Amino acid sequence: xxxxxxxxxxxxxxxxxxxxxxxxxxxxxxxxxxxxxxxxxxxxxxxxxxxxxxxxxxxxxxxxxxxxxxxxxxxxxxxxxxxxxxxxxxxxxxxxxxxxxxxxxxxxxxxxxxxxxxxxxxxxxxxxxxxxxxxxxxxxxxxxxxxxxxxxxxxxxxxxxxxxxxxx
Length: 168
Hints:
This protein is an alpha+beta fold and 168 residues long. The chain is built from three helices and six strands; from the N terminus they run αααββββββ.
């Protein structure tokens, strides 16, 4: 029978406060739930951003439902900039995200998301005549994002980067 000493546990195994190996069966469901919540926040972010871009409304209230700063401010500024230049987004952006890392032991908890975005059918067009803004077309590229769990339990997308130089 084990005495519960830390020396009796597997190297690298999490330990409880009394030095015994920590129970990990609950970790998998918690990690899975976090992954699902992070992906739901990410899908909500993409949908809200598309709607805000189509309507050229940087203050669309749906953005705050799925985004947190600094990404919220970045998205709002990009939408405002397009609007000020007489442009808006139209078409379909195809997404295929997956969670690559979940950190429930950090404060706040985070989940890393990697996505292969297909922007071939998603265009920046001039509002007045719907012609494509020169230099704004894109293809398939890697995107990364971080979902953060806030103190109220909500998962929000707090950072995001499009790696258009990295096809997928």
